[in-house]
Every structure is written in structure tokens, then in C-alpha cells.
Amino acid sequence: MSARRVEEAALDWVCAHRDRFALGEDALAADGQVNRTWKPLGELAQVCASVSVGTPPSDPLHARVTELLDFAWQQTHKGEMFLLMQSLEPFATYPLEVYAAFASAGYRHHGYEASAAVVARTRGWRLTEQYPTRRLGVMEAERRSGLRPHGKVPQALVRTWLGGLPEPWTFERAAGYALTHVVFHLTEWGRTPQGVPPDLADYLRHWLPPWLDTCFEARMWDLSCELLAVAASLPSPPEPAVLEDAWQRVAAAQHACGAIPEEGSAQHAAPPGQDDPYAFTDCYHSTLMAVFAAALTTARQSEVERAGQGVPG
Amino acid sequence: MEQSSTSALLQGTVLDLASDVVSALRSGDHVRAGGTLAGVSAGGGVARAAVRVLGADLLLPATLLGCEPVPDQLTVFQDAVAAHPPRDDAAPTVVWSHWAMIRALRRLGRPPTGPLADDAGAEPDARWLDDAGWQYLTHQLAVLAPLALPGEECAVMRAARRRPVDVARGFVRAVRRRDWQQAAGAGRWLTLLDGVPATLGLEAGLDFVRLMGGSDPRVALQLEAARLMPAGVPL
Fold it and tell me: What are the phi and psi torsion angles at A168 (to 5°)?
């Protein structure tokens, strides 16, 4: 399958652009752009945390993502920055959401966790107004950071687009991004497929193929890679033909440098002959999602193969 | 220029014929069903070609509601069947569309006469659908929507019955791509299939297709057929 080749090339790009994920001077500024500072770093940490868990230490990719995780943790001054962020914005949820990615990979700051627990005990924290999908994410971040989740997953799930099992032909971009994150939260970012309730698993197995097909056709590479990560997070993955076709399409969208543009025609965005054709903000997320989805896909495939070998012939 | 104006005329005639069928299905009014073809001579090439495009669905009011087809319409239909038997190398959808037209005539007790009479009943095979991906399967079924009838037994129907989830995926894809004709055709098939996941929301889906694409009479025709399916008289 092309997934492994896509993963290696995408990780090459990430490693080559590692410093672009670094936190700048504005990371703690009052008017700082979180989407340009903490968000990319948190996404790097989350993807690397997931890949490091799902990839055996003997695999060379394991060492590469561990190095990237170390780098990302250093950027937070080994967690000290989370305490500073909390002092500036005590009731913002995103610091805890970013921290949770590190915590899930064993990078912890006990002082921050103790401070976060104080804030998380308030009614104000529990009543933060947010989208249902985000609420599920915050509850998951609390759990991963050693705090008591402020709500129950089934109640939060039922208020999400995916949790309500909507007509699959009503799928559009925003619903797509919401549903992928619901699955990431339910499965600890692909680690526990059994976290997807059976009715949701059936629903996704039925409808991922047309969503993937139409997202690829619309050249929505970023969302397509997220959907592939969802496909690899289900208790029973979709038919092999669906995945084979999908990974070939991702591979075709990947530039020689390993980057995958978020959306649009690869040819238009990347004229031939340019070694590094995309702006960082136009490709970093889709490239990370390709690493994430490919790692999950190859890990699930190995599981299936191992299970197959275990069956007496 | 001449070619494009002929093509526009054909397209317009197809739409007019589809509108006639839609009116008839909505009202049960067989006279309106024959409106476009009233007074058309049997030799009218554009009318015949348009009848071939619409296929057996031209007689759908008679098939589903038991309306008596108007003589002019029936004459052009019979002539279209007789004048254009599929070539040996015709695509499977062309062969099946022809078969469906002959079948519709037989149902009305008007089997073809002349050279076609002998081999007209032989059912083609549907092997080309065996390994078809769900996207292609849905496309082909939508083209062959005239075969989606209650109680129909043929190889294409059996192929559809084996793959309800795939056809449902095709419906989702067609709606996402705003291909209302394919969505309506797939939706018509789905009303006849067991095993369609309930989460599809077919009824709301067909209403949505009508809302977005129902101004095209070819779309409306499939939706009317789908609406009549559950109440349709098994053939």
C-alpha cells in the first residue's frame, strides 16, 4: 500500500521544516495569533504522540517522531509555558488541549496539572460555551491530563453532528471536520478503536467511502487525510479496495518534497521545478494529517496480518 | 450548426416527453402523457431518438398506474424499438434499455412484430456489473432506472439487490456532486431494495433532490416513479 511511502515522505517534510513549528516571541503576547503559534505546535505534538505509540521502537520512524516530540516539548520549556499561559488566560481551554497531547506521550508537568485542576473545578470552566465537538475534546484533554472530566462522553457525543447519525448526504466540510475530531476524541487519536460505539462504527463504515470519494474529487486533501485517519480508527476498517484507492490518490497529491497541500490542484499550487513550493500555512496541517493517517493505517494493517498468522491454517 | 441544433431539438424533445410522463404520473391523465407525440408521424427521427433516450419510462404511467397509452405515443414507441435494435458491440446499458422497452410492450400485450419478434425476449446478462465499483454500479443503475419497477425480475435487478449499501453510497455521492439525475435514479432503485441502511434517510433525501433538482423533468420523473413504488402494483 502507498500509505507507508506517503508517511515517510511527509515526515521528511515535517523534519525539514521543524523550526517552522517553533514558538516565536508572540506565543505569550496578549494579541498573539494562537492559530499560528500554539496550534501548529500542538498538532505536531499530537501527531507525533500518536505515531510514537503506534509504531514499534524498532521502526526508524519511531526515533524520528520521538525527536520531534522532544523538540516540541523543549519549545514549551518542558511545560513551564503552560503555567504562564494559564496565568494570562486562566479559563481558556486551548492550553489544556495542547498540553494533553504531550501528557498522552508521557511528557508531563505536575505543577501545571495541579493548577489546571483548580480552574477545572469551577462552574465557570464547566459551563464554557463551545461547540459540542470541542466540548468532547476538552473532556478528553482533562482525562489525559489527569483531571476529572467535567462531563460524560455519551451525553456530549449525542450533541455532536456525528453522534446524531445525520443523513450522510448532508455531509459538508464543516460537518466533516467536526466528525473526524469526534472520532479522534473517542479513540484517543486512533489508539482505542473500541471507543467508537457500535452504531457509530456501522454508520462510518457505510458512509466513509462516498465522503472520501467526493472529498478527493474536490481536492480537499486535508479533510481526506483526516477521514482516512478515521477509517483506520474503526473497530472494522473499510474494504481494502476503498483504502487502496484512497492512498493512491493521496500519493498523487503529494509533492516530491513530501508536502501535501491543504486543498486545490497540486499542479497549480506547485509548478514543476520548485523544491519547496507551498507556504507553510498552506500545507503543514494536511502533511501532518497524512503522517497521522498513514501511521494508523499501517499499524492496523500489521495487526490484521498478525491476527491472520495466528489463525491455524 | 445543423448538428448542434438537432442536438438541442432532441434534448428539448426528451425534456418535453419527460414532462408528459411526470404529468401523467401525478394525475393519472393518460391524454397528457401523449401530448408531445400527438400527431407525430411514426417516421419522425427526432421523436424516435427522444423515445430511445427516455426508454421504457415513456410507458411508465401505463406500467405503474394501468393507464391506456395513447395510440400516437405507442406507435412512435414501437417504431423506435423496431428501427434501432442494438448493434452487436453496443454497451450493456443500450442492450438493456432496448430489452426494457420490449418488456414494457409485452406487459401491455403489444409484443414486437416482424424481424425482432423471435429474439426479443432473450434476457441479456449482467456480468459487467459483477466487479463494478460502487460508483460505476450506481451510475449504470441510474442509466437503467426504467428497470427499477416493483416485482421486476431480471439480472440487473438481482445485481442491485445484492448491493444495497453500495447503491446507497452512490446516492450519497450523487447528492454530494449535485448530480440530481443520478441521485434520483439511484433513489428510485433504493425504494425497491432491502438492506439499505436506515441512516441514509432516503425519504428526506428524495425530498431534498426534488427541492434542489426537481425542476428538471428527467429528475422529476424518477422522483415520481420512486414516490409510486411502494404503492405500485407488482408486475
Answer: -65, -20
Which of A166, A171, A206 is closest, CB to CB, to B176? Answer: A171
pLDDT digits (tens, 9 = 90+) for A6-50: 999 999 999 999 999 999 888 887 777 888 889 999 999 999 999
Min Cα–Cα distance to chain B from A66, Å:
40
CB A190 within 8 A of CB A232: yes
Q: List the grid coordinates of B119.
A: 429474439
- Give B58's contacts (C-beta < 8 A, 6+ positions apart): B17, B21, B51, B73, B77
> Which sequence spans correspond to the domains of chain B?
1-124, 125-235
Q: Measured between CB atoms, does B195 come within 8 Å of chain A? A: no
Q: Is B145 helix (H, G, I), strand (E, B) or coil?
A: helix
Question: Smallest CA–CA separation between A52 and chain B, in Å?
Answer: 35
Q: How many helices (H) and strands (E) does chain B have?
A: 12, 0
The whole model's pTM is what?
Answer: 0.94
- Digit-coded pLDDT (tens) for B101-141: 999 999 998 887 766 655 556 899 999 999 999 999 999 99
How far apart CA A196 and CA A204 sit, in angstroms, is 10
Answer yes or no: are the C-beta atoms of B225 and B148 closer than 8 Å.
yes
Using an 8 Å CB-CB cutoff, list chain B residues near A168: 172, 199-201
Sorted by sequence, the CB contacts under 8 Å of residue A171 that are 6+ apart come out as A179, A207, A211, B172, B176
